Protein: Transketolase
Organism: Bosea vaviloviae
Amino acid sequence: MTSIDRSQHDKLANAIRSLAMDGVEQAKSGHPGLPMGAADVATVLFTRVMNYDAADPRWPDRDRFVLSAGHGSMLLYALLYLTGVPGMELDDLKKFRQLESKTPGHPENFMTAGIETTTGPLGQGLATAVGMAMAERMLAAEFGKKVVDHHTYVLASDGDLMEGISHEAIALAGHQKLNKLIVMWDDNGISIDGPLTISDSVDQVARFKACGWRSERVDGHDPEAIEAAIRRAQKSNKPTMIACKTVIGFGAPKKAGTSKAHGEPLGAEELAAAKKALGITGGPFEVAADVLKAWRGFGAAGVAAHKEWKERFAALSERKRTEFERRLAHKLPAKLDKVILAHKKALIASPVTIATRKASELALDVIEPVMPELVMGSADLTPSNNTRAKGAEDFTPKTPKGRYVRYGIREHAMAAAMNGITLHGGFRTGGGTFLVFADYARPSMRLAALMGLPVVYVMTHDSIGLGEDGPTHQPVEQIASLRCMPNMHVFRPADAIETAEAWQFALENSKGPTVLALSRQNLAQLRTDATATNRSAKGGYELLAAEGGKAQVSLFASGSELEIAVAARKLLAEKGVRARVVSVPSLELLLAQDEATQSAIIGSAPIKIAIEAGVRFGWDAVIGHDGGFIGMHSFGASGPYKDVYKHFGITPDAVVEAAMKRHNA
Amino acid sequence: MTSIDRSQHDKLANAIRSLAMDGVEQAKSGHPGLPMGAADVATVLFTRVMNYDAADPRWPDRDRFVLSAGHGSMLLYALLYLTGVPGMELDDLKKFRQLESKTPGHPENFMTAGIETTTGPLGQGLATAVGMAMAERMLAAEFGKKVVDHHTYVLASDGDLMEGISHEAIALAGHQKLNKLIVMWDDNGISIDGPLTISDSVDQVARFKACGWRSERVDGHDPEAIEAAIRRAQKSNKPTMIACKTVIGFGAPKKAGTSKAHGEPLGAEELAAAKKALGITGGPFEVAADVLKAWRGFGAAGVAAHKEWKERFAALSERKRTEFERRLAHKLPAKLDKVILAHKKALIASPVTIATRKASELALDVIEPVMPELVMGSADLTPSNNTRAKGAEDFTPKTPKGRYVRYGIREHAMAAAMNGITLHGGFRTGGGTFLVFADYARPSMRLAALMGLPVVYVMTHDSIGLGEDGPTHQPVEQIASLRCMPNMHVFRPADAIETAEAWQFALENSKGPTVLALSRQNLAQLRTDATATNRSAKGGYELLAAEGGKAQVSLFASGSELEIAVAARKLLAEKGVRARVVSVPSLELLLAQDEATQSAIIGSAPIKIAIEAGVRFGWDAVIGHDGGFIGMHSFGASGPYKDVYKHFGITPDAVVEAAMKRHNA
């Protein structure tokens, strides 16, 4: 045990409380209750337990700390300042919740050094931490415990444990026996509506045990007890949840222990009274010099360990060092372009009529051998998503080098864990489910887009083309709903070549996530060229020009409907109407091109028809209000897929009719 | 206990197995494993336990049966046929998974009588059943146990219990002590990827106990044990989960107990062997006459109870009968229109500058007194969502007449429970959360849209206008992502009058759900008229005409940006440019009007600008590719909301600039 006496501990913890109160008060907005209640837990972590070097918050082998209860952001900002993370000054704390500050309302890892992940939407931090702990184990298995050996600590609130994603996350962590994951639950018994007893009566300790965790209760204001519990957790072969009984707004005489301490400034009077009760002197944002000095000492306590780590790292073979650095920098392997081009050429030489989900598997078969950092998985739909390439090995407690994760029927935790795997560093990752179940994973996908994490979602069964499973399983609006998300790229490739190009785009884009929407049904190979250029990368391109003169009709289609466009073009030609076909594997990417590029691709044919087995929403930007749209106007229906297509009128004949109606008007 | 001997039970259960195998085989698609494995459990429920009258599957006091594991739909179809639900014939079973049949791939309550809810997306049935059990308790408290006294039974699979929503649902049910909810878990240890042990190790019995349930294990192929467990459950003061250990594909010699029995036809050989092993004779879809007769007897066993119920119902006061019937028919109270019109007139007489979330509360204050069936609630954001009207009482085990539900931080289960409350009958319902967290609830919202359930989502903090909480909490794409969902209506009212009209639309629309996207910040009241006509009900209308001649510019806006449009119109007038302002509280509703109505509202001004603090996606249908859009092109940012609006250029000046650029071009 560390020798920090209680009075010193209290001073350290009260510095957090003081800054948190002042920050919220100055912003006239924010959450003082959690930082004040959890200050003791956080102080134990950052002064006695965690291995970190505040001067270098990117040290690869640091212990991770995830504030899942992101609304308590002032706790984190106070810690970054007190421990001395470069760039976090008192002035930053004073700008809490102001535009472009390093101290936004919820922790944003892209705004502030030292923040491991963006949190706020409840449950996300916890589930993301599960991915971090998985990545730690995988990376340690590959590079050795000498350079990868750290814990992931989470501070979670009642809300984190009420959200459904928490079940998926803890069941996954328990199953994987992620013993280096330690969750501190801030058990303060208060939520926004009042005492937690009005909405919850779960025995969380028993619940975690049922999910394969160690779990125990401690007094969240007793530093010795907290530390002892963590030491026990560190020795366990299971993940641990420590229920820390705390008082929200600890120290505030009137508001402590009530929901009034949760989400609004204390007010000048209560703030002053709280500081008095806690024995805090000095003005707003003042930290006594000796207290700051002590905190800075803890922030630098890991310098020696960091130095030793550097020495151990330097002792690795050059090959290992280079690979480790490449991987941490998210640099792609040099051979990637080459194998994808070779794959495209092989497809041109021997065209295939296969589902794009199968085409994705073929792409993975060539990518994985040159990309050891690619971690794939599926939410229990491996045989349907085709996410498991030749020679893949499962990631299990006994096979930590495995790169294939059996996520179980847990789309949400899968997406969050993929964020964590990516944030941890050392890996790129992708996971599969049915496209319609993107809805289950959406909050985590949004965080990937917000954080700019290059996660790949392999989402198969991408339309009514899945047939018999019916409308509950047929995505109709999912593609549109994902296209409208900032920084999310959606590809719906039409054949095996476009599928390879979509994979290439997804891997080359290091700044955001990509959805691959893939068919269940077989599709003809329509592309007849294979150059090094990724033709899908501008979102759209002319697949077939009009023959015999200027195009009278432009037909736009994505994915499985591209062959309908090709067939319609032929039928129109028989009627003497010249049509071109534009493949649009990524509508929003096409709309993100400059106007000249867009114009060139969209073209100037007077009649524009889009064909997509989804809703029209978004297509007006290409075809206009008066353009024709052959697609879905309702939910789908259960039946063999060819019947379903006919039933909803998504056929070459319907395209021809829409074009001729306009042609003859 | 009932006196059905084992050999008779086996014949009854095997009839289910036989039809399920044949249905899947004929369709060449489907899931035989669950019906075969769970046939004993289902047989016990439908022959010994449940109180129902197959001839009238709409009898209000029937026991509910929810097949949460919707992929096992042949189980349900077989039961409907065997018990004799009108309209389900052998021919329907033969059309399993064919277009427009009564036997789609997953159970669809809108296609088939006798199906309580549409299932398939895992976890939804379980969480919906929680709402049904809540509604039963509420309705019993109001009308008495003589006419409302039934159980809700759920058959759930491993997948149902792995999905996160299951945690929210069982925690809510345990907290509410919904003792008439009984969940039969089909514990077959198999998922699509293989044995469940590759992805899960949760002790489900312990987990349910931790969440306040009774829970026990039984042999799922022992009818006596199953029945005894259910009898114990019926006496409990808690909800009960019975883990029924079963063999997936029970009876299939080679595939039983493996994932090969799960989701594909057995194949002719295995099917024949299974029938032989089970002692089933006769050709495909043949049920021995004595077995069918026995089943029909059970289907009619509730006739007497149903008759007695009718007598008890007839003995109620006329007032109670009329009210019960009105409520079950989802007919609105006669006074509703009147109080809303009076409310609008009062607002015109005394205009208010308030947030639309507050305006929603004012609307509820006048609606709730005349609409006793309205059940409101919030996912722990009551003081933020303003969902709790004056005089509302909480729904708790001790106050079952309460109409306000404290859902806890459980958006997903809230949305599913609202589906269940609506499906049960007797209530209309609405629930609140932040708009950005629509993402957490989306799968259940989609089912509401698919089933056509008139649920109301009160989603506040509807844009960057929430300010300091930052991009994790600022919806940017949520409005677009909900607009593109079939049968979902999204209203983003601009002031207190439009908010009242949005509520009116939501309540009058009995065929689908409505999202009310409401502001955190105060908004001026812009409407100056109050007629009985709901001007918002066509999605858009001209708020201000151009002055001094034909409009040169049309400005379209929703919600909080309408006042920006009004201000821009004034600035443009100062520059001699004539602009009109069109309020668009519901874009997709406007686009659903006939072309003439749309044209009249959209107008023919050469310059079109839309203003909305969200993404452009969808607006091109109104403004065209060359129209101006003042809104969001990225995620938001943390800061005081006026700063955030300026930062992203959503201001009257920006509107003027966009208009003048086009005017001068």
Notes: Chain A has three domains: 6-308, 335-524, 541-664. The first strand of chain A starts at residue 64 and ends at 67.
